[in-house]
Amino acid sequence: MQKIKIKSPATVANLVCGFDILGMALNEPYDIMQVQLLNEPNVIIRNNDYFGLPEEAEKNVAGVVLLSIIERMKNEIGFEVEITKQIKPGSGLGSSAASAAGAAIAANHLLDNIFSNEEMIQFAMNGEKLASGVKHADNISPCISGGITLIRSIHPLDIISIPAPDLYVTVVHPQIEVKTSDARQILKKQILFKDAIRQWGNIAGLITGLIKNDHDLIGRSLEDVIIEPVRSILIPGFDEVKKKCKEAGALGGGISGSGPSVFMLSKDESTAKAVEQVMKEVYNKIGIDYNTYVTRINKRGVEVVSG
Ligand code: HSE
User: Fold this and answer.
1) Which of 26, 132, 143, 232 to probe ligand 1 with, by most ligand atoms within 8 A of CB?
2) Residue with CA closest to ligand 1 atom 1
3) Is the CATH number of domain 168-296 1.10.10.10?
């Protein structure tokens, strides 16, 4: 196989209380990538979108992932990539992870699947390091495997798939850019013991709620007393959106990844659409452009479209 086309999904990292350890894949939006195998150690990148991302391999998220694979393959191969990005960079919807994970999976297919999921996560984390300055897997892991994943540890990698209930996800992306690196820099270096206790209670509650399909438990565990109070300052209308979405019937939600997107989980489609309406009303009132998505949890992860 010499050429492959894949779909790489958006992801919601953190799932409110699980900073850097929980993530969920979405059916929409997604990026499309076409990757071709070359027989010389080179990475050629073409961006088929308007985001103006760098095309030099060393500065491109997919590029650094492919360079690390080429190095592992003793410089005997190369790749040509065309990226049609639909997940806006800086949206908080795992745009860099979609490029990184998509590149790793596509390359692995072209190499007859010689690498394990774990190795692909390791390759893909090089892309996250370039984008945010830190190797984190809470977008990459659900992007690769689909569903909801727990990253119990990065050193050594220990990733657990959590059963994902058939919930609807509503997302609003106010059109302002929040760089993950900036949103990490503003976080406190130390937290109060009482906040830590509340946070790990919520994480345990959320995981139990997901496993038992207990919607009320999921809803009340979607609480973040550590990160959200700091980061929500970067998102205009955040408190109002959250309050009104819950009044409209959402189970709960919060900042998607490092923001500015905000996501809400709902039991059914009509509630998810009512939640979307509320989000639109808030941002129309504030006067900020936005995109919304009403979608579901993606259970497949990166998918091969052809090749
Ligand atoms: N866990 C990361 C953060 C995700 O919140 O900084 C970034 O997409």
Assistant:
1) 132
2) 20
3) no
Residue linked to tokens 């955040």? 238
Q: What ligand 1 atom has the least distance to the C-alpha of 97?
A: 8
CB of 141 closer than 6 A to ligand 1? no
Sequence ranges of the domains in the chain: 3-163, 168-296
Is it true that 3-163 and 168-296 share their CATH fold? Answer: no
| In the block, residue with structure tokens 């390791």 | 122
Q: Is 180 a residue of the active site?
A: yes
128 is an active site residue: yes
Beta carbons of 18 and 206 less than 8 angstroms apart: yes
Separation of CA 38 and ligand 1 centre (Å):
33
Give yes or no for residue 184 CB within 6 A of ligand 1: yes
Residue with tokens 């129309």: 284
Q: 85: Cβ–Cβ under 8 A, 6 or more apart, which residues?
A: 31, 47, 48, 49, 51, 53, 95, 98, 99
Check: CB of residue 147 under 8 Å from CB of residue 299: yes
Per-residue pLDDT of the chain (307 residues; tens, 9 = 90+): 699 999 999 999 999 999 999 999 999 999 999 999 999 999 999 999 889 999 999 999 999 999 999 999 998 999 999 999 999 999 999 999 999 999 999 999 999 999 999 999 999 999 999 998 888 899 999 999 999 999 999 999 999 999 989 999 999 999 998 888 899 999 999 999 999 999 999 999 999 999 999 999 999 999 999 999 999 999 999 999 999 999 999 999 999 999 999 999 999 999 999 999 999 999 999 999 999 999 999 999 999 998 7
Residue 173 DSSP symbol: E
Ligand 1 contacts CB of residue 31 (under 6 A):
no
CATH architecture for residues 3-163: 2-Layer Sandwich (3.30)
